Amino acid sequence: KSSNTPGKQRQRARADGKKRRTQLLKLLGELLPSSDEMQFNLLATTLDLDDGSLKQPVGSEDSTLFPENDKAALSTWNPHLVY
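The structure corresponding to this sequence follows.
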């Protein structure tokens, strides 16, 4: 049985998720073609399926480029990849 508090467990899960997301964004950046005519702007945010919150947006300082809520993240924010 874990002696970690639920708060510590959530903190660790967020840190692990952020690390995996950073690795995935790096891999996608390497795999997607890039040229002068075509540039990809990779945006990512963490969707908490427990409470529907969106956290840790990365890829732009412009908050209007990210979905406003969980429903938008899974329906109107295109293209998207759920990982």
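The chain has a mean pLDDT of 85.
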